[in-house]
Specification:
Number of helices: 4
Helix content: 55-70%
Mean pLDDT: 89
Low-confidence stretches: none
Largest sheet: none
Number of strands: 0
Structural class: mainly alpha
Radius of gyration: 13 Å
Strand content: under 5%
Length: 75
């Protein structure tokens, strides 16, 4: 919780970790949280992380990854 609380504070008022566009910093960190719902990682106490994930979730690569994941699990 300590790390997640710090990360949440960093993301306050931001859509990305560094600058105004998605960078390798976002990709590196989101790779561990991209399937937070499926992994049942509790994020309800981290609104800025949730906003960040929602922003990344609007990208075509995220949607494609989620779709591919769903297809694999349904086979």
């Amino acid at each position: 919780h300590t790390v997640m609380s710090q990360f949440d504070r960093v993301l306050k008022g931001r859509r990305t970790i560094v600058g105004e566009t998605i960078t390798i910093a976002d990709l590196g960190l989101v790779s561990s949280l991209i399937f937070s719902d499926e992994a049942q990682i509790p994020l309800e106490n981290y609104p800025h992380i949730q906003n960040w994930l929602n922003h990344l979730g609007e990208t075509s690569w995220w949607l494609q990854t989620k779709q591919t994941h769903a297809e694999i699990l349904n086979k």
